[in-house]
Amino acid sequence: MAIITHNQKISKWILTVFTITIISLVSFLTQVSFVGLSKSFGQTPEQTENQTLSMTPIQFGIPPELSASQKNASTTGTCLLTPASVRLHGTPQQTEGPYFVDGMPNRSDIRSDTSKGSVEQGIPLRLVIHVYDVDDGSCVPLRGAKVDIWHANSQGSYSAVKDMGTTEENFLRGYQVTGINGTVHFTTIYPGWYEGRAIHIHDKVRTFNGSEKTLEWTAQLYFNNSINEQVHKQNIYNHHGPPQTTNEEDMIYSGPSADGLIQKNSGEQLMVNITKQGASYLGTFDIVLNAE
Is the pTM of this model over 0.90? Predict the structure, then answer.
């Protein structure tokens, strides 16, 4: 019969304690790494099960120098709308961002993707944009201007972007040409958010003389923070989670205008006038520029 000595008992006990310690330490470090990784995406482990992680590049950086047609589009002037005599101020420009694609369809309803025939789902938004020129203090509707808009879908993705796998798609992009009253109408969905940015819609106004561009004005339009939060509690949007960045936390919203006319909080001048209409929203915005 084998006899276990006192020293053998001690050695066995030390080995058991050492093994338990190693297992506990590995388990602890694994948990810490997982939590740290989750926090790096701004989410807890419980949230990642129901939310989509946003890996979209942030649109920060120094805006490029404006071209002559862009600089000339900015105005410090004001104009009056009669008979209401509402005074409108010149509208500041902001950076175009990395996702503008020219040659999108001429259409009012931009929800569909013409390559696949699919339609982006989300809360309907009807956007009405009025474009004015300043003429001796009066607001003159700018006729024949090409107005492009583009924005992210409910999950924060853009069409026509290689890094997002949407190169051949064109959902939530399009343009309209202003009529005699200087107005364009778009039917779209309420935009979603993506990492580092407040919720916004890009817009660009251009005029042409034949193939020659004579004017270019570019900005981004913003929405009320509380409405952004309400929208993202709704179905489809809630799959992506609540917005991570408010208007005031957005460097482009809170920064200077691209044309240098406003030194800070240029986004305050670019807020969409939003009204709820049943299960959808109506947004209106006035653009006042120098078309001379």
Answer: no
